[in-house]
What does this fold into?
Amino acid sequence: MAILSVENLHFSYTTGQDILKGITLQFDRRPTAIIGQNGAGKTTFAKLLKGLLKPLHGDVYVKGVNTKETTAAQLARQIGLVFQNPHDQIFKSKVIDEVMFGPLNLKQEKETARANAIEALHMVGMENKLDKNPYDLGLSEQKLICIASVLAMQPEIVIFDEPTIAQDYPARERIKEIIQHLRQKGKLVLTITHDMDFAAAVFERTIVFAQGRVLLDGTTREVFAERELLKHAHVEPPHVTQLGQKLGCRETFLTAEEWIRYKRRKS
It folds into this structure.
């Protein structure tokens, strides 16, 4: 059984204007990027997976449980969503209280909740900010606090919505390490992103949404090799991929390191 499955999923906010149009997907534990232009339905899809929205037609199953038959609060043990905008998530006046909130809601003992919160804050490099007010911190740090808040609940599925927005290079590298750590622990990581370089460097599988449907689904290398279909979805491949294509290379490069190794072989 897939850890997460979607069957013929339809959703609309307004009658007659479907945002998602018959999405069917199975997710194993491969880190997966979901890409596509604005309005393709990516964030709506994430909210449906989390149970914050319910399908108009079709079904979403989280570890075999239909999201129509449970609540987002009950699903929190299994699936966590890091929102794109930290201000949609943060509401406490201390970092430690913010990160402990989820574990306490899951009925963890206070000492356990605090230990899990501190471990999560350590993962994101914010363990020295326990008593700070999140609203006094910058957007980048607020985003890391939101990540810690989800990680502290220790869900099996973690969804990131645009995790690299407002992040500098060290923070981006830390987020990469977090995703790799979650993968090593056997967790499923999904990421909605417009950052194609990040998607190419981190994720094994990539799904392209276009006009509420799945246009492409495959390994990240396979997907970024599909130049014409990506144009149809108004998605540009990673910079290094474009470089290789413009130079007429047969290989599809996903990272600068791959390009450098290729050039060394050819020299």
